[in-house]
């Protein structure tokens, strides 16, 4: 059995790298994370609220539905969209106006904005 | 499942800053030491390390756990360094700023021996690719293949960079390999 073994002092020195002391680096970085994330969320919330205000000032929920349906007709990019847009277009808006309360539309819109927020 | 995986999952699921901060604490020492060796300046290394961790936080969902998390961080750190070199074209200029600054070295480490200072100063005289390969392989224990994956270099290039770098380090530090031959047991 051959027991030749090679000891390389260079490898030994290289295997003991000095590590830089933290000295507040992690805390500074944590502050950066806290700074950046809420600002992005705030901008998103503000734009969501602005969109809701504009939507409810300038258009009724029924009009929004009609706009959405015409948009889907224009887009029509896939079969799935096609099926969805056909379904949406086929809705009787006269009936919808009777049954669709504005409060529910408002709650649904809020829920949609918050679900987008959570996904962000 | 280890703590690191749990922290990654928690960060991904809840965008939890505290969980990611714990990951930063676990890895900042290695990442900053790697970047100091490459950039040869502590202030630049800290900026690059900060950029590394912010990028990692934003792109954490692209980490699929196929390799090690530290390897993934080293890859981001190396890319940040290359970007820094490209933007400032500092490759030639950085070497002179660092050599001979023993005081600067002792100031930034919790504990550093005289031999380690000599080694850091010797490493500073190598080319960036040699520094990166030697640091990842010999100092932080990654295999040649892992280093090739991290730095996106062919395996042969990694091996030749390590070989060239070690030869140069031996010349600078005047270190020769010692062979211990043991007698065959009869």
Description of the molecule:
By secondary structure, chain A is mostly helical. Helices cover 76% and strands 2% of the residues of chain A. Chain A is built from six helices and one strand; from the N terminus they run βαααααα. Chain A has helices at residues 9-14, 25-58, 61-75, 79-89, 93-99, 102-119; one strand spanning 5-7. In chain A, α2 (25-58) packs antiparallel against α6 (102-119) and α3 (61-75) packs antiparallel against α4 (79-89). Chain A is elongated, with a radius of gyration of 29 Å. The termini of chain A are far apart. The model of chain A has no long low-confidence stretch (mean pLDDT 68). Chain B has 186 residues and is mostly helical. Chain B has a single domain (3-173), classed as Rna Polymerase Sigma Factor, Chain: A (Orthogonal Bundle). Chain B has ten helices and one strand, in the order ααααααααααβ. The longest helix of chain B is centred in the N-terminal third of the chain and has 23 residues, at 17-39. Chain B is globular, with a radius of gyration of 18 Å. The N and C termini of chain B lie far apart (48 Å).
